[in-house]
Amino acid sequence: MDNKKILSINTFVLVLLGIVLIYINCNFQLHLGDGGIRFSRIDHLLHGEILPMKYSFVGPIFVVPLYLIGAFFGAQDEFCAHFNLIISIMFLAIAWKYLKTIANEKTASIFVVLIVFASMLPAQIPFFYGEVFSATLFLIGIFCAALNQDKRAIICWILATLNTPAMIISA
């Protein structure tokens, strides 16, 4: 087995282990703080009532598929509580793919392992706050820009900024 294959397997095992540890130790808090407000407004919206909210609807609107699947099983709260975990896993897969192209496999491996074990993600995954959505989209936008995928980069940055307006400074 060549070194690249070993690196890929080791990275996958470390990331999977990290995600499992995060999941096992997570006390998902859908209704805590502004996450509760966001979820409540989406719940009302899906029942035909639009209530004002001081937070953006952009990130929470992406939870609608989970909400609908959860509603089918009578467990929309439980399904939606995992939104940031799902976003994080998708981000790790995209980051791995893009960074292998932008830099190399070793850099991609180091990046995704650091994201799992030494970033804000593990601390933010249990909550339905907007930071995970915005931060991951912003980084995907950077990867897209590095790959000359300008339209995708701009879409990612717009969505991230609409969800967390303070990101306009970064964009």
In short:
This protein is an all-alpha fold.
Give a description of the structure.
The protein has 171 residues and is an all-alpha fold. The radius of gyration is 17 Å and the shape is globular. The relative contact order is 0.14. The model has no long low-confidence stretch (mean pLDDT 94). Helix 1 (3-25) packs parallel to helix 7. It is built from ten helices and no strands. The protein is 72% helix and 0% strand.
Write the layout of secondary structure elements.
Blueprint: H1 3-25, H2 33-46, H3 58-61, H4 64-72, H5 76-81, H6 83-102, H7 105-117, H8 121-124, H9 131-146, H10 150-163
Which structural category do the helix and sheet elements fall into? mainly alpha
Q: What's the β-strand tally?
A: 0
**Proportion in β-strands:** under 5%
Global morphology: globular
Percent helix, as a range, is over 70%
Low-confidence segments, given as residue ranges, are none
Order of helices and strands: HHHHHHHHHH
Main sheet?
none
Query: Would you tell me the overall average pLDDT?
Result: 94
Integer-rounded radius of gyration: 17 Å
Q: Compute the number of helices.
A: 10
Separation, N- and C-terminal Cα atoms: 42 Å
